[in-house]
Specification:
By secondary structure, this protein is mainly beta. It has one domain (33-730): Maltoporin, Chain A (Beta Barrel), CATH 2.40.170. 7% of the residues lie in helices and 50% in strands. It has a 22-stranded antiparallel β-barrel. It has a five-stranded mixed β-sheet with strand order 1-6-7-4-5. The two termini are 38 Å apart. This is TonB-dependent receptor. One of its GO terms (cellular component) is cell outer membrane.
Length: 731
Amino acid sequence: MKNSQQQLILAALALMSGAAHAQTATPSIDDVPVSNTALDSEAIKSRVVITGSNAVNRAPVQASLQATQPQSIITATFIEQAVTPLADFNAVARIAPSVGAGLSANGPGLGESKVSLRGFQDGEYNVTYDGIPFGDTNNPTHHSTSYFPARIIGGMVIERGPGNASNLGQATFGGSINLFSKELATEFRFSPYATYGSWNTKILGAEVDSGQLEQFGDARMMFNASRLTSDGYQTYSSVKEDNYQFKFQKPLGKDTMLTVFSTYNKIHSFVPDKAGVTLAQVALYGKNYSLNNDKTSQNYFGYNYNDKRTDFEYIRLQSNLDGGWAIDNTLYTYAYDNNTFSGQDASGATANGTKSGAAGNKNVPGYNKLNSYRVNGDIFKLTKRLDAGLLRAGVWLESSDTERHTFDLDWTLNVPNPKEATAPKDVSYNQNSSWKQYQPFVEFEWAVAPQWTVTPGVKYVHFKRSLDAVVNQGTRIPTTADQTYTTTLPFLTANHSINKEWSAYAQVARGFLVPDLSMFYVNNPNLSTPKPQTSTNYQLGTVHQSGNLTFDADVYYIDFNNKIASTGTGNDLVYYNQGGVVYKGIEGAATWYVGSGFSLHANGSINKAEAKDSGLQIAKVPKSTAALGLLYKDHGLYGSLIAKSNGSQYAKDGEPAAYQIGAYTVTDFTAGYRWRVGGGIVKVLKVQAGVNNIFNKQDATSIAANSKGAAFDQYTFVPARSWTVSLNADF
C-alpha cells in the first residue's frame, strides 16, 4: 500500500518540477458535460447558477437545463447552511427525491448510514469523489463515515440513471451519488471552527487556504484538519474521528491545470458488528440500547469496537491542446482498513458458552474481523471539438488487493476460540482477493440543431476477479479461483432546449452491476458463473429555471435482468441468474422564491420495484419519498425548516405484513448569522444552531430478520431529538 502512495507523490513532484517548461492553461468548462461524473464544482456553478435567479441560488436540490437524465444538484451553500456539521454524505443526499433512509441510529454522523436510490440499495449504485468511483472490494458498498465527512464536501450531484458512456463505476446499474471537493480560495484565509451538541458531541478543526500565490505561478492550496468526539445517542457507543484533507492546484502554463488531492480519515468507535436492537431489548432498555458495561455479556462495550483508517489520493492533469483536442488524466489510489472486534451475536440468539474448556461453561464468544484493501487506478479521457459537436473517448483502468478474515475469540479468557467443526477451529475464514478491470468508452455529443443535442455512446466492461483463500468464507475449505465478467453497454441521451428557461431530455441506457465476491463462497466456483446484473433505463424529463422558480420532473422505467439467485445449501450452494425486477416511478422537485428572503421547496417521488415473477414490491424499497422546506437567506441571516418523509416499505420480499415498516418523517431546523467584521484581525464570523428531529419522532427505519426467529429480529430507529451550536471565524 505504501508503494502506491509513494508513486503518486513522486509523480506529483515530477509534474510540478516541469511547471516552468509547460506551455499549456485551465481546460475550458465547455468541454465538460453536466452528465459526466468527472464534472467538478466549478463546472456545477457555471452550468447551473443563473445570474439574478433567486430560486436557483436558493434551491436545496435542482437540475441543470443541460441535463440528459434525472439529477439532483446540491450546492456547498446548502451543505454548510442547512445540514448539521456532524453529517456524513448520506445525510446530505437524503434531501433529494427518490433517496430513502440516510439516518444513523447513533445520531447524525455518529454511525454509518445507508441510503436507497429509487429502491436500489447501497452496492447497486456508484459513489464517486471528484469523478473517481470508490467502494468496497467484496461488493461496491460504502461506509458513509469513512473518507469524506460532509464538512469537507464542496457539492453533490445525484444522478438517477446510468448516464453517458463516460460515466464510470462498477454499479452504474442504479445511478451515481457524485461528491466533489471544495473550490480553493483566491485569497489567504485561516478559518478555525467548533461545534458542540447533544451527547457531549464536539468538533474542533481549522482550514488554511493559501489564496492565489503569484510568486509560485498562481498556485493555490488548502489544508483542513478536524477532530470529532461524541458519547453517541446509543448506550456505550462513543466515537472519535480525525480527518485531514489537502488540495493543491497549479496552472502549468496557460492551458494546463495540475491538481493534487489527499485525505486521511481515522475512526475509533464502539458498535456491535451486526447492529440493531430486538423488541425485547427495547422493552427492557429503550430504543437507544446498543452496548452495556457487563463483562459477562456479548454486548459489553469492551468487546465491540472497530478501528478504521482510510486514505484517498489523486493527481489530475487537464490540458487543452492544439486543434480542439483536450486531455484529462487522473491517477489515483485509495485504501480502507477496518479492524473490528465484536461479540458473537448482539441479538441474544447465541448464548454464552464455547467449545473450549469444560462442558457447560459460560464463556463469552466473539470474533475479530479484518477488511483491508487498496485500490489503484487511472482514468484517461480525450476530447476533440468538432463543428458538429464534441467527441469523447477514454479508458478506465483499475486493480485491487484485499485481505479479509474472521478469527473466533473467547472474550472471557482472551484467547482464540476453537468453535469451528474442522481445523483450523478458530478461523471462520481467511482469504485474499483481487480484481483487474478496464472500461474503454467512446461517445459523441452531437449538436443536431441549435436547440438539440443527442449523445450516442458505447462502453465495454472487462472485469476479472480472483480469490486465494486458505479458509474460504462459507465453505471453510481452501479455494483458488477466478472469473471474468464482460459486457457491452450502449447509451443514447438527448437534450432539447425549448427556450432559455425550459428544456426537456430523454435517455435510453444500459447499466450493470459486477457480481459480488460471494459468488466464490461455494464448493465449486466453476459452477457459479452468473452474468453481471444489467438494467435498461428509459427516462423522460423536463427542467425549468426562471427568476423566481426552478422546477424539474421525470418519469422512469427500468428493466432489471439477470437477478442473481442461489440453489442448494452448504457445499452444494450454486449461484445463477434468474428473473428480474421492474422499477418505475415519477419524480419532481420545485423551489419558489416568495420574496423578502423566503423561498419554499418541495420534492417527491412515487416508486415501484416489482419482481417479475410475483408482481410484488421487493424489500427495502420505499413506496414514496417527499420533502417540504421553508428557507430564508438575507443580509447575513439564514435558516431552514425541512421535513423529509420516507414511504412505507417491506423488510423482506413477498410483502409479509409482519415485516412492513411504516412511513416516517424527520424534521430538521437550522438557523445562522454571518457577518463581516471591520477594523480587526477577524474578517468574518458565523454562528449557527440546529435541531435534528425537532418533533422527536423515533419510528423504526429497518428490520434485520434473524434466521433463529422473529424474537431475535434487530430493529433500528430514528435517533432522538438532538441539537448543535457552531462557531466559525475567518482571519
